[in-house]
């Protein structure tokens, strides 16, 4: 490596930039495999191994990158040839990888396997135009997306500092340290309208100013990467795909706030993110971008990584602080807020991963470019993970104010198997379920709160007609019952009592005034619980009652589960007119509840049936139905 | 001096005072289970929740943790407060149906029965014992373990504690009477004649007479004096008072902390 170290001047940065550009667009072909957690889960490791084993290193460079967001298409492989459009292949297997890569190097594009073509990163090089292969921007999945925080994810090697700098990285920090006063940076962030991406949406600039103005000589910044919502992986993807952006954002924030010490609190269930972050921190330290006298200035900032122990509640800021201090992760009453009295009693500024990653972009592109995106009260973009009953599962970044319908149907591709959409749950386990009538709602902090959901950190779970909303409320409360720290009675006891009632309803033993009792518990928790976990815990309960009250009533009054989910309330029936006697169901039944001769209609003995649904799944004649 | 309004009454207090302290000074009742003057506010029982209007923001807040501020308007009888408090009392009653102290407090606030299934617990997890032990007495012999519904108070791994000094602070502050010491130890203490009760550690065989750094001068013993200052009692008295507080019905063996 010829680039100078440590990085002390703008010339040094330019040197790094050139080196990074050479790595991103080398003189020989380059094959890049998406190796974030989603890629690895679908077999990217085998693809990478096959490539390194069989492609001579003189023919092509084999590199890794983060996640492009289109999880449904993983493993994804990008093939680059000097002077030719970049091609992205989808669902690549180890067997086809080498052929695809060499074929592409010879100019043969396997159109069946190609997902799209890509522009260069950073912009430049040949335009992504190839007959018969769409451009990335034209894919329905990407068409309505706008990438700010995820712009580098899936494009650069997350372990390469040079590639980060080549895509504009660390120029914002240089500008901040050398020509901007801390107050000006805070003003710029305030002006951009950036709000906390962790869920509550507190204005980031105001938070920074509060910490800067708080009494105390030593200040601390913390990055909250304790992303615990089931089905949400925005922060994981960012840390795995672009860890330097978070580090740069934190360093700028520390300079603006006047902090010399920083912590990244990552949940230990993210081993790859921890690994990438550690590598990024050690590289930044080695090249004078972290530690003493950053970039040759008088500013020093030391960053430490702390791994969380798997408690959902530690995502709450006061519990997170307690956890870093080595105490049990339990929230405490605010005020005082961490901005006044935080980690070790010092003024502390906590932002989540996505918020920090927005900071360098705002400084280098200006607050006004950020303000242009989004709605009146919510500026910029937001990353969401869309999971559940949806065609295109994945990670998306959209401008604030896009409607839920756009996300579900245009980007997500709608509901699989032609089923009907029923509800979308936003904001993790403590978010609310929004029904079809709310699909035209613009996604911003205020609108979601109005309908009884929350923005949360950005998890979106889509449910179809086969989902029982009472069962969903039961499921989320069951999760929260395990994750409540138990410190305050409304949360600990409230969740347990509500769950008790819900379980009873699901068993068909609901009582006349159960819905009212559930609502009363929910209201009490909203007002009385200590932290945000407790006050938002009743959201799934209250929102399902609000929008799907008829389902609750059907369970309680008629002893019927309309979606056919609650086991105690359904019966499997066999229609002898449709049954062809194929014996599939009889073979599948673990209870031998189905009997009958070959090629003759079978019979189902309800007394033996344990309602496992095996027969229902295997029947090709639709002869078995739920009642 | 800061001036706040609580239930229409104007109350004055010093900076740093909590809403609960200000209300009690003015003679306004607010129920609590986890509050004690001897330890820092904790905010776990949530019974002291009130409605606080700070400027144009009206929220429900735990009054024991909320510092007063000039111009606050506090309502202890707002409809949301009353409804929530009633439900919370019902939840406590269902958790501890046999604890007289909870029954009395609930009755005082007009709640006498609960629609929920009884759990027959005797600890409300208010954390007073844990805080008295760690914060006031510096022993840290007991702590919470488990999470959520499996949360409980105990010694590490439920083994007899090495650091417990049998001061009795935990039993003294416990609102339900769950925290008790092993009857045998207490009895051993009590069998001694008053003149011999010089130092409880020596009496209990935990220290030989040579070990007391204070030469058994309790008046100058930081441990003994902390107890006096924080809780207005002495170790031996604290242990004795527990029995009085919980009454005759509380005789079954409870959580023990003795070494």
Q: Based on DSSP secondary structure assignment, what is the total number of beta strands of chain B?
A: 7
Annotated CATH homologous superfamily of the largest domain in chain A: NADH-ubiquinone oxidoreductase 51kDa subunit
Report the sheet-strand fraction of chain B. 5-15%
Tell me which protein chains meet in the greatest interface and how many residues each side has. A-B, 31 and 35 residues
* Overall SS class of chain B: alpha+beta
> How much helical structure, as a percent, in the residues of chain A?
25-40%
What is the CA–CA distance across the termini of chain A?
Answer: 69 Å
Query: Can you tell me the overall shape of chain B?
Result: globular
Radius of gyration of chain A: 27 Å
In brief:
The complex is a heterodimer of chains A (627) and B (259). Chain A is of the alpha/beta class and 627 residues long. In chain A, helix 3 crosses helix 4, helix 19 runs antiparallel to helix 20 and helix 20 packs across helix 22.
Compile the SSE list and pairings:
The complex is a heterodimer of chains A (627) and B (259).
Chain A: H1 10-24, E1 30-34, H2 37-41, H3 44-54, E2 61-65, E3 77-80, E4 86-89, H4 94-105, E5 114-118, H5 140-143, H6 161-166, H7 171-179, H8 182-192, H9 204-213, E6 220-225, H10 234-241, H11 243-257, E7 261-267, H12 271-286, E8 302-308, H13 317-324, E9 348-352, H14 353-365, H15 367-371, E10 381-388, E11 394-399, H16 404-411, E12 421-426, E13 432-435, H17 445-450, E14 459-464, H18 469-483, H19 489-506, H20 514-528, H21 532-536, H22 539-547, H23 549-557, E15 572-574, H24 584-588, E16 594-595, E17 603-604, H25 614-618, E18 624-626
Parallel strand pairs in A: 1-2, 6-7, 6-9, 7-8, 10-14
Antiparallel strand pairs in A: 1-3, 3-4, 4-5, 10-11, 12-13, 12-14, 15-18, 16-17
Chain B: E1 2-6, E2 9-13, H1 19-25, E3 49-54, E4 57-62, E5 73-75, H2 79-95, H3 100-108, H4 128-136, E6 143-145, E7 152-154, H5 169-173, H6 183-191, H7 200-203, H8 222-231, H9 235-246
Parallel strand pairs in B: 1-5
Antiparallel strand pairs in B: 1-2, 3-4, 3-5, 6-7
